[in-house]
Amino acid sequence: MLINEILREAISFLFNYPGLLGIVTGFLYEEILLFLIILTGRGTLPFVNIALFGLIGVLISDIMYYALGRAKVISKLKKVSFVVNRYRKLPKFLKNMDQRILLNLFVSKFVLGFKSYSIMYLGNKKIGFKKFIGYDFLALVLWAMLMFPIAFLAGRGLNIFLDIFQGIEKFLLFALLFIVIYSLIIKSLVKSLLKLKS
């Protein structure tokens, strides 16, 4: 009961400050940021605040992962047998990340769980901070130019869709199907990219 009230208050507080909401969601997860962009398409939230501050949040998150990659703990982890065995199983495409920084940072924005690994790897390879920030910012802008219009237009279409489907159950079923299909498409794209690079 108390946890529900705290969460409800935190969410209502964040919705009153869309810039802060954008930073927090961008820092936590890009997919949540895309969901908020969908809500901006519905007119629930201001687009510019969510998009701009969300990108700042994603950039802060990426810098944090880069700093973790530079930490000495990551170098010590490379000596643990479990980590070494996992590293050997990685495709060649992933092992040579420092040669195609922009491509890898761009792809990492789309693959769940790949972003943190790829950025920490670049930090561990001692790629300079200015070089990393330049490439990461460019990859982030390319990602936003591709995904934000899609999410915004999905929000616009969502208004029409909600008018057609009055029941929330039908909408949730459609949303679940969309997420599953989207995940399958992304996985197949990643597999085809990995096959091309092999």
Radius of gyration based on Cα positions: 19 Å
Q: Report the sheet with the most strands, covering strand number, pairing sense and barrel closure.
A: none
Number of separate structural domains: 1
Our estimate of the beta-strand percent is: under 5%
For the termini, the CA-CA separation is 53 Å
Give the mean pLDDT: 77
Provide structural commentary.
With 198 residues, the protein is mainly α. Helices cover 84% and strands 0% of the residues. It has one domain. The chain is built from 11 helices and no strands. The radius of gyration is 19 Å and the shape is globular.
Topology of helices and strands:
Elements (H helix, E strand, L loop, with lengths): L1 H15 L1 H11 L1 H13 L4 H24 L1 H6 L3 H8 L3 H4 L5 H8 L5 H11 L4 H36 L3 H30 L1
Helix pairs in contact: 2-3, 2-4, 3-4, 3-10, 4-9, 4-10, 8-9, 8-10
Q: Key features?
A:
198 residues, mainly alpha, 11 helices, globular
Quick structural gist:
The protein has eleven helices and no strands.
